[in-house]
Amino acid sequence: MTEPRRTFTAHLRVRFGETDAMGVANNAAYLQYFEIGRIEFLRAAGHSYAEVHNGGIDMVVAEAGIRYLRPLWFDDEFDVACSLTDLGRASFTFTYELKRGGEIVANGFTRHACVERASMRPVRVPEWLAHL
Amino acid sequence: MTEPRRTFTAHLRVRFGETDAMGVANNAAYLQYFEIGRIEFLRAAGHSYAEVHNGGIDMVVAEAGIRYLRPLWFDDEFDVACSLTDLGRASFTFTYELKRGGEIVANGFTRHACVERASMRPVRVPEWLAHL
Amino acid sequence: MTEPRRTFTAHLRVRFGETDAMGVANNAAYLQYFEIGRIEFLRAAGHSYAEVHNGGIDMVVAEAGIRYLRPLWFDDEFDVACSLTDLGRASFTFTYELKRGGEIVANGFTRHACVERASMRPVRVPEWLAHL
Amino acid sequence: MTEPRRTFTAHLRVRFGETDAMGVANNAAYLQYFEIGRIEFLRAAGHSYAEVHNGGIDMVVAEAGIRYLRPLWFDDEFDVACSLTDLGRASFTFTYELKRGGEIVANGFTRHACVERASMRPVRVPEWLAHL
Fold first, then answer.
1. pLDDT number for residue B120
2. C20 is catalytic
3. Residue A54 has pLDDT above 80, yes or no
């Protein structure tokens, strides 16, 4: 994995609906935190995900990995730092680090493929993303 | 409200991800139970919701109401009885009753309008629904 | 319904994971928007919901109603105005108004009962809430 | 990774609320499919997760990985095969395979640690699980 070209940090708070009967954020919620992280990353880079999506290209998730290091409790505030770390012809990887205060509570990655929306066939990564 | 023309009952179980830090199914989960109830109702009536959706018509939710009578706990099994109770030219109403064992734990309704998918403009209720 | 004693407005954005195959925020997401609205209302009033919850009292949702007036699309920014409108001995009501720009896109209410967490038995509304 | 000691298969259908604006099951939904898979695995092995949870032990998710091979569309029926594949003193791993018809649409794993619920401190894997 190469050095991140760019990092963006979004600030979130654990919603009550994201907790489960263990009293902590459900493991599936983290993929939503990652999703928000990369959407805000793209927005900060000047490209809203809505624009990408409406342009007929979708960035489908091909693979995801998460390490849960510390539980997140209801109402906890935390940051999602999202970096673009790997960029190929038709796929790219975002990595994520979740921090509460100075403490890393989780990290992970999502690998994405670009597809034409109608056909779901792979297409090249958009130019602007390749030049971030 | 007129007599239900037809009722269909779906059997569900509370998922762990649907619970919240109170240890019970989150209040928002009930709208998903209702949604599953009406989708299974339509399927039982011979019309999959996927078919409706792909046909260019969406049955948007215009209004919803829920009464929470008893909490639903993780892993509880329950039934969602869904009935078509009101049917106008461009809208219709489903009512729902959630039962765990013989006990009613919640009830409610959703009122729907039919819209053309692309424009989101109101259209008439499909013939087949009007004749259920 | 009496005049609202107090109103608080939270600012949100439709998350991608909250949309459904219709391309808009799923009807169940609105109950989560309401939940965030009332949690922020309580925080603004100086009482975090976590504090209430940890104090052994839960404010269970006894009833909810939602009117969906305009669809909310992915990435739409909107405000949730939450007001405490009715206050009885053991229950109270929040009303909500969702606005995108100047336009009301949805409104609704949730009626709550206070219960002792362990037993789920009704208890009186906390003093501080009664004096908001 | 050792040979699975035991496999259990749960049958599911993509819910409308699990889809997103791409028209397919949202990437986060897969962790809920996994969760349902392992809960049904434990039930088939004679141990409900509710029992585990109520017994004061939680099986927290320490790590998760997912490979998304083919999209799942609304209303698609699919199977979640869950296997217990690795078992240590204080942690164990479930692997998952999602199949629609004969086709593998996704696979992945979750690694779990056993913790005492109140303190969130690690404890040994229960005897019965070690002997599955």
1. 81
2. yes
3. no
For the residues of A14-33, what is the DSSP string, one character each? --GGGB-TTSBB-TTHHHHH
Task: Please judge whether C17 and D26 are an interchain contact, meaning their C-beta atoms are less than 8 angstroms apart.
Answer: yes
Residue with tokens 């949805």: C106
Three-state DSSP class for residue B14: coil
Min Cα–Cα distance to chain B from D56, Å = 14
ipTM: 0.92
DSSP C23: S
Q: What is the per-residue pLDDT across A66-111, written as a single tens digit (0 to 9) for each?
A: 999 999 999 999 999 999 999 988 899 999 999 999 999 999 999 9
Chains that touch D (3 or more CB pairs under 8 A): A, B, C
Return the higher-pLDDT residue of C3 and A17. Answer: A17
The continuous run of DSSP H or E covering C34 comes out as helix C29-44
pLDDT tens-digit readout, B78-123: 999 999 999 988 899 999 999 999 999 999 999 999 998 888 888 9
- For each of the domains in chain B, give its residue range(s) and CATH number, in order of start: 6-130 (3.10.129.10)
B71 beta partners: none
Other Cβ atoms less than 10 A from the Cβ of C7: the count is 14
Number of Cβ within a 10 Å radius of residue D91: 17
- Which residues are CB-neighbours of C24 under 8 A, at least 6 positions away? C71, C72, C73, C74, D21
- The DSSP-derived string for D56-87 is TEEEEEEEEEEEE-S--BTT-EEEEEEEEEEE
Contact residues, chain A, for D63 at CB < 8 Å: 65-68
Res D2 pLDDT > 80: no
B93 neighbors B64 (Cβ within 8 angstroms): no
Q: Which two tokens stand for residue B78?
A: 């329950």
Closest CA to A30 of A87, A85, A78: A78
SS3 state at A128? helix
Q: Which of A95, A77, A98, A78 is nearest to A86 (CA)?
A: A95
CA R_g for chain D: 15
Residues in chain B: 132
The whole-number pLDDT of residue C2 equals 54
Q: Cβ contacts (< 8 Å) between A35 and chain C: which residues?
A: 15-17
Per DSSP, C70 falls in state S
